[in-house]
Design goal:
endonuclease (chains A, B); magnesium (chains A, B); metal-binding (chains A, B); nuclease (chains A, B); hydrolase (chains A, B); four-stranded antiparallel β-sheet; Alpha-Beta Plaits; globular; homodimer
Chain lengths: 97, 97
């Protein structure tokens, strides 16, 4: 699996922008989770990456928005640190509720 | 040098939030560049990372905002792709104006 970080820059001042953000969020969350309002961590196969990229390109407005996709280093716990509100849930660990 | 991606999640609905974003942007841009409205790519030494982290923690509101710091894979060109508006400038290449 390939671990990706997807950062989506969109103006949420307009309803159209908020709609695109919801659409992008839905596409990303199908393969991972939302860690910030417009930042997502996803895990995909090579084939899924092709579909994911295609869907993102269709959902975004290329003349107004920006999407950046970073391949994350493994293991992710070692190369990411979070401060403040942390929305990440490690689904590979047992959930303590 | 360590290449980092810094994602800052802050509500820009309030003047206080916008002020914190400006402050965080200023701290990050001293070591790199703003690639999206609240996403920054920076390069720092181990020692600079300590100061940078400290400054970010002081600038953010830990009860309201989120900052995520990712160590990027090298070479960055190979592991990042940008779609739509791209604000990144490769300062290591000759600038063609």
């Amino acid at each position: 699996m390939i671990d990706l970080l997807i950062c989506y820059d969109v103006s949420t001042q307009t309803e159209a922008g908020r709609r695109r953000l919801r659409r992008v969020a839905k596409i990303c969350v199908a393969h991972g989770q939302r860690v910030q309002n417009s930042v997502f961590e996803v895990s995909v196969t090579d084939v899924q990456l092709l579909t994911l990229r295609q869907k993102l390109l269709e959902a975004m407005d290329v003349t107004e928005d920006s999407i950046r996709i970073y391949r994350l280093r493994q293991p992710r716990e070692k190369f990411v640190e979070a401060h403040g509100l942390d929305q990440y849930v490690d689904f590979s660990e047992p959930l303590i509720l």
